[in-house]
Amino acid sequence: MKNALMAGALALLLPVIAAAGEYSLTVDRVMIDTGDFVKEGIGYNGASPGPVLRFKEGESVTINVTNNLDEPTSIHWHGLILPFEQDGVPGISFEGIQPGETFTYEFPIVQSGTYWFHSHSGFQEPNGAYGAIVIEPEGREPFRYDRDYVVQLTDKHPHDANRVMRNLKMMPDYYNRQQQTVGDFFADISKHGFMTALQDRLAWGDMRMMKADVEDVQGFTGLINGKGPEQNWTGVFEPGERIRLRFINSSAMAYFDIRIPGLEMTVVQADGNNVQPVTVDEFRIGVAETYDVIVRPKTAEAYTIFAESMGRSGYARATLAPEEGMQGPVPELREAPLLTMADMGGMHGMADGDMATRDGAEDMDHGNMSQGSMEQASMNGSSGMAADAGTTMARMDHSGMDHGAMIMAEGGASDPFYAEGSGLVPVAANGGKFLSYSDLRAQKPLYEEREPTREIELRLTGNMERYTWSIDGVKYEDAEPLKLQYGERVRFKFVNETMMTHPMHLHGMWSILDVGAGEWNPVKHTVSVQPGTTVYMETEVDAPGQWAFHCHLSYHAASGMFRKVVVEGGPDQGNTAGVEVANDGGDA
Amino acid sequence: MRTLTLSALALALTLPSLPVLGSDMPQDQSGRKDALSLWGVQFEELEYRYSDDDEELGVWNGDAFYGTDELKFRWLTKGEYAIEEEAYEKLENQLLLQTPVSSFFDAKAGVRFDTPEGPDRTYGVLGLTGLAPHWFEVDASLYVSDEGDTSAEFDAEYELLFTNHLILSAALDATVAFSEDREIGVGKGLVSTETGLRLSYDLVDRSFSPYLGVVHERKYGDTADFAEAEGGGTEDWFAVIGARVSF
């Protein structure tokens, strides 16, 4: 009995010992100064972005979140593997945090790497409620660095997010200032001839689609660690040092193409998981993704971190320099990309738009495209479905590569994760290496390789003119939850039938992106699906409970491209559940 | 025994902190699960018109809506106020419910109240509104008045972008009556057309866009005859200055 008491006392102490990290966050109204404008927003501990939370793998963390707003709030720990009640999605994980309330999150840290956190309530995240998470690993990392900086990007808009949503619903092109003009039409005539230019316009007009519809929400100022281009966030280094840059894209809507002229970047981690190092000149970071890169400036000069938005409507800029106050040259924004008919490959309208496809392909032909590949793009389009990742890869190996240069004579290369002939394929500014998903290989497989138990197809759907977004044509408000069984390995097939890029984020479980590398497929939490493409990912269903699954573009998620995922079965249903959850820390 | 006590103790300790799991997961009752309800106000035309025979008019054509993707309540308002006569030549309000019927078109139904200077009319409205291929914004409505007369109105608008801020918009509005309503000066057949060209500049986002333009109004057939009989004109040219406003 005495022994039992002792054990009991010990058990009482245990959580205290395990809870090595205790953190406090307040959710506050803050002023956000971008250098271009000052705007009221939401932040943490009095600032936006909030603090960088530094955790250690293996510790248990306790985070007290006090809501100083006059509306409910929540914090979602993006990419963290934790009990579902701690995931911070109101209505799915918990009830949310009411005004004046302090909610205590408690969960074990079972991973390492770069992540981030943000509000999952209303539009608080685009209004500024986000911060970074850095988790130090238990063991040694497979790469070395001397310094470590978080580089957290966002697309801060002068309009409150509710107003942005309203404007998009009222006029979907409200913020699009890159639309084709009369002048562009004459430019097309002089370049391609009158008939081709006209046919091209008619083809797009017939579909009621805009080539220039790459970025829905323009007019933002790109911020890095809360600083606008003029405010120039600066990371200091000693020449010769290896610097680890932890890029996090916390934007509401903007994808960024990132480069540091004069420096090669070695990508060592994607979405918190180590990848086999790949050296690139530039990379594209989707909304909610993270990439860790290592750079090694050898000379004592200032280097510009230049992040152009994918649609080239805005940029973020920061500097790496031997001392504060130095500046490197800031490049000009490159020309805005235009969608091609290949990007329309998944549109419903294509069934009756065969003519349109031909017209478009013809136009591309004039853009220096070989007859053979034109046929391919045309077929791709009129079949109403882009080739799946597998055949895209095959095509890239066997044929795409051969005339890769020709297909995108104006844009440049091809990438198996973009529709063939896509106008969105990124090209490095210096003509060098641009990172592709297909370059990513896991450093160490997280799971044993096995056959998926089933495949679930999810069509990414929407209507740009109504600004409605959905999955399988059904918005969240009308959707049944997606049911998964604990223990299964699900293969998700994303078919993007829209003209927009969608960064799909599954909470609570890893997204193993199929790049055709088998057990070395990279492990991510957010997977970008480009227009007119099909992308596969696999998920080991190892987390009981219910989770959110959505497009991470704020206004797409809010318009309905969102699902609840219910994982049925698993340890939580049994008797042992209580103890396990408790040790991990249920909500208080 | 010891293990048992321990786990019992652990369980007791943890019980209060257990979330209510049960067999059923909680339903999402957050705002996200509700259809997004939004509102908007737009004035396509808010302008001063000066005619070729020195008539001055204050004119507006606007709408306000509230609702979801599936169902919107819309208030359309149009008016022409003759400044010298201090009288409404036209004053029309429609209260409508609007719902999507295809990818690019909505059906609408409701009531229209015309309360200008002179006799009033109330109409039942049935219409279609949306975006036709090649970016023509079109709107077609069928009206049945409380006098039993039917008429139809067709509206089309096209925007030509000189730049992304300097925009020329062309608008055509035509009304056809299927029966005569002499009291309000409407004859059977094509009643009237209004054609406008407006060159606007987006000064503040798309919420304030001042413009200059010309508008041509014409009456046809019996309607023209009725107007002439009353000493009015059948054709007018206007110079217009105004602003497109949305918020």
TrEMBL record, chain A:
<dbReference type="InterPro" id="IPR034282">
    <property type="entry name" value="CuRO_2_CopA"/>
</dbReference>
<dbReference type="InterPro" id="IPR002355">
    <property type="entry name" value="Cu_oxidase_Cu_BS"/>
</dbReference>
<keyword id="KW-0732">Signal</keyword>
<dbReference type="GO" id="GO:0005507">
    <property type="term" value="F:copper ion binding"/>
</dbReference>
<dbReference type="GO" id="GO:0042597">
    <property type="term" value="C:periplasmic space"/>
</dbReference>
<dbReference type="InterPro" id="IPR034279">
    <property type="entry name" value="CuRO_3_CopA"/>
</dbReference>
<keyword id="KW-0186">Copper</keyword>
<dbReference type="Pfam" id="PF00394">
    <property type="entry name" value="Cu-oxidase"/>
</dbReference>
<feature type="domain" description="Plastocyanin-like">
    <location>
        <begin position="38"/>
        <end position="138"/>
    </location>
</feature>
<keyword id="KW-0560">Oxidoreductase</keyword>
<feature type="region of interest" description="Disordered">
    <location>
        <begin position="367"/>
        <end position="386"/>
    </location>
</feature>
<protein>
    <submittedName>
        <fullName>CopA family copper-resistance protein</fullName>
    </submittedName>
</protein>
<dbReference type="InterPro" id="IPR011706">
    <property type="entry name" value="Cu-oxidase_C"/>
</dbReference>
<dbReference type="GO" id="GO:0016491">
    <property type="term" value="F:oxidoreductase activity"/>
</dbReference>
<dbReference type="InterPro" id="IPR011707">
    <property type="entry name" value="Cu-oxidase-like_N"/>
</dbReference>
<dbReference type="Pfam" id="PF07731">
    <property type="entry name" value="Cu-oxidase_2"/>
</dbReference>
<dbReference type="Pfam" id="PF07732">
    <property type="entry name" value="Cu-oxidase_3"/>
</dbReference>
<dbReference type="InterPro" id="IPR008972">
    <property type="entry name" value="Cupredoxin"/>
</dbReference>
<feature type="domain" description="Plastocyanin-like">
    <location>
        <begin position="450"/>
        <end position="568"/>
    </location>
</feature>
<dbReference type="InterPro" id="IPR045087">
    <property type="entry name" value="Cu-oxidase_fam"/>
</dbReference>
<dbReference type="InterPro" id="IPR006376">
    <property type="entry name" value="Cu-R_CopA"/>
</dbReference>
<feature type="domain" description="Plastocyanin-like">
    <location>
        <begin position="220"/>
        <end position="317"/>
    </location>
</feature>
From TrEMBL, chain B:
<dbReference type="GO" id="GO:0005507">
    <property type="term" value="F:copper ion binding"/>
</dbReference>
<protein>
    <submittedName>
        <fullName>Copper resistance protein B</fullName>
    </submittedName>
</protein>
<keyword id="KW-0732">Signal</keyword>
<feature type="signal peptide">
    <location>
        <begin position="1"/>
        <end position="22"/>
    </location>
</feature>
<dbReference type="InterPro" id="IPR007939">
    <property type="entry name" value="Cu-R_B_prcur"/>
</dbReference>
<dbReference type="GO" id="GO:0006878">
    <property type="term" value="P:intracellular copper ion homeostasis"/>
</dbReference>
<dbReference type="Pfam" id="PF05275">
    <property type="entry name" value="CopB"/>
</dbReference>
<dbReference type="GO" id="GO:0009279">
    <property type="term" value="C:cell outer membrane"/>
</dbReference>
